[in-house]
Amino acid sequence: MNRSNTAAANATSSGTDDRKSVLHLGFNRGDVILVTGAGSGIGRATALRAAELGLAVAAWDLNGDTVAATAAQINADGGTALALACDVGDAGQVDAAFVRSRELGTIRHLANVAGPPSAVAMEFEAALVLCVGSMRRMVDVWLSGGAPEGASLVNIASVAGNLVGTNSDWYCAAKAGIAGYTRHLAAYRSDEVRSNTVAPGMTDTPRLTGFAASEVGQRTLQRIPLGRMGSPDDIAWAVLFLLSPLAGYINGAFLPVDGGWTVTQ
User: Fold this and answer.
1) For FRET with 174, which of 28, 137, 200, 221 sits at 20 to 30 Å CA-CA?
2) Radius of gyration (Cα) for the chain, nearest Å?
């Protein structure tokens, strides 16, 4: 039994439920993770849980106020976080934010979470450039100086466009594109980075406030075998597992995190 398993066993036998004392998923304490969209929802949960695992967090978001609040909570809890307001669709802002983020150290893990909500009306071609292109830009800038040892990334797609169709044409196409881009990385850049996709289902984030109470939301909930929406933490833990050394032989996976919704379609 290795040291981490021994610690977990000892904690279990003593009856403790302190996650911080037993969970690290094999991450090296102090390694840097960059999380986009960290101001709210899935990105925020990923940043907070990553800090609990001992990672230093470069937290990016379009909204400077909300991402500052995420970083402030991490730092107040004894972690390390740097908040940066950044539009991932703007190449200049991305370049500048990477320079600042590297002040924390070598960026070893990337959670590409940021992207517009499906309810936003967007021109089709521009939406694809923004959604898929921004993730490609993040990866290319990150790895441009050489890939760090043990580099891993997760791109957030969706069950929409990959397993089910929705009303928004650009959203479906963009999420399918993100999954396809991740497969390319897994097949052709695995010497640099280990790459996987997480596809959330209906998740209880600010973007879906009130949806579960709507007629459409209720119909959807009835088709989810687990009988509830996902929480941001449900998605965050899946992301962090795939980023972690424990998932070191998982590359190119597409993981739906949807309570079983898509198997009922």
Assistant:
1) 221
2) 18
> Which tens digits make up the pLDDT trace of 34-69?
999 999 999 999 999 999 999 999 999 999 999 999
Q: Active-site residue numbers?
A: 171
The CATH class that applies to domain 21-264 reads alpha beta
* Average pLDDT rounded to a whole number, residues 123-150: 96
Yes or no: say if 26 and 246 are a contact pair by the CB < 8 Å rule: yes
pTM assigned to the model: 0.89
Question: Which of 248, 251, 36, 43 is CA-nearest to residue 134?
Answer: 36
Count of CB atoms within 10 A of residue 149's CB? 6
CB contact burial 189-226 (16+ within 10 A = b; e otherwise): beebbbbbbbbbbbbbbeebeebeeeeeeeebbeebee
Predicted confidence band of residue 169 (pLDDT cuts 50, 70, 90): very high
Query: CA 80, CA 57: separation in Å to the nearest integer?
Result: 6
Q: Per-residue pLDDT for 12 more than 70?
A: no
